Amino acid sequence: MKASQQPVESLLGQVTVNYYLAGTQQKLAPSVVHQGDYATAYDLQPQLIPGYQWNEQSPTNGWGQYGPTDVQVSFYYVPTLILPRRSTLTIAAPTTDEGQLPH
């Protein structure tokens, strides 16, 4: 009797990426789940979130290899500082009745 042949399943690792407001656990965007075969490399980058900028502190586990343990990677963001637009004030130089500048 022949042994039944079972398909060999690929072993997948999982990395979940979270996007938080710096200093909190307030999510600014939905988490993203990445999967890959064990021992396959991953290298994660922050995403653009309108109104916020990444605080440029790379997570220590933002790159590595997929493995048997699920990994949580967190990127932290700060609000983008939007300065009000400057208005330009023009002041006319005084003139005499003839339109000439005084001497």
Describe the model.
The chain is rod-shaped, with a radius of gyration of 29 Å. Strands 2-1-6-4 form a four-stranded mixed beta sheet, with no helix packed on it. Strands 3-5 form a two-stranded antiparallel sheet. By secondary structure, the protein is mostly beta strands. The mean pLDDT is 85. It starts with 11 loop residues before the first strand and ends in a 24-residue tail after the last strand. The chain has strands at 12-21, 27-37, 41-43, 52-54, 63-65, 71-79. The protein contains no helices and six strands. Helices cover 0% and strands 38% of the residues. A hairpin with a 5-residue loop joins β1 and β2 (27-37). It has a domain at 17-79.
Short note summarizing the structure:
Pfam families: MucBP (PF06458). The protein has 103 residues and is mainly beta.
| pLDDT < 50 stretches | none
| Number of extended strands | 6
The strand line-up of the biggest sheet is: 2-1-6-4
Averaged pLDDT? 85
Helical fraction equals: under 10%
- Strand fraction equals 35-45%
